[in-house]
Amino acid sequence: MADTLSATMTLRDFVNGYWYLEELKGFAERIGIPAAKKLRKDELEKAIVAFLRTGRAALPTKRSLRKTGLKDVERGLNLKLRIENYTSNRETKDFIVEQAQLMAPEVREKSGVWYRLNRWREEQITRGKHPTYSDLVRQYIALNQMERFEKIPHGRYINFVAEFLAAAKG
């Protein structure tokens, strides 16, 4: 197994390794992946896998990586406001939670909900839809009402450990 990221490493070595975000960003920049500094870890991994398979560096996402204009928080969060420049900060999260509590007081926050909510929001915008904060709050409620989340596909050791611990008795 490789302990250093390299353009000549095997796909197997990459997939079987654990890489920190900063390592991935630096490597992605060296091999020419566009906007490497703005990508999430999962996006960097996807781009690097594609590079190791094809030898070509490409942007792994269709989502907009440039944000211009006023942040939604500065425009004044309200349920009718269209999501244009979302900021994942305490004020925004508090707004979403408060509105959810008004709509569905019984809902309690589940672990992993923010990751899934952010991916849902990005997907809606990438598809050309124009969600509002009301849509976001309703999706937050729906996610928190789910019995269990599907596992996020990630062929790594952490999934093995999660499955092992779930099956372990005592």
The percent range for strand residues is under 5%
SS summary, helix count: 8
Order of helices and strands: HHHHHHHH
Show unreliable segments. Answer: none
Query: Which structural class is indicated by helix and strand composition?
Result: mainly alpha
How far the N terminus sits from the C terminus, by CA atoms, comes to 33 Å
| Coarse shape | flat
Main beta-sheet annotation: none
Helix fraction bin = 40-55%
Radius of gyration: 19 Å
> How many strand units?
0
* pLDDT averaged over residues: 88
Task: Work out the oligomeric state of the chains in this entry.
Answer: single chain
Explain the overall architecture:
This protein has 170 residues and is mostly helical. The chain is built from eight helices and no strands. It has helices at 11-16, 21-30, 41-54, 72-75, 90-103, 113-126, 133-145, 157-167. The longest helix is centred in the first third of the chain and has 14 residues, at 41-54. The protein starts with 10 loop residues before the first helix and ends with a helix. The mean pLDDT is 88.
Topology, pairings included?
Blueprint: H1 11-16, H2 21-30, H3 41-54, H4 72-75, H5 90-103, H6 113-126, H7 133-145, H8 157-167
Helix pairs in contact: 2-3, 5-7, 6-7
Question: Which features characterize this protein?
Answer:
170 residues, flat
Structure described in brief:
By secondary structure, the protein is mainly α. The chain is built from eight helices and no strands. It is flat, with a radius of gyration of 19 Å.
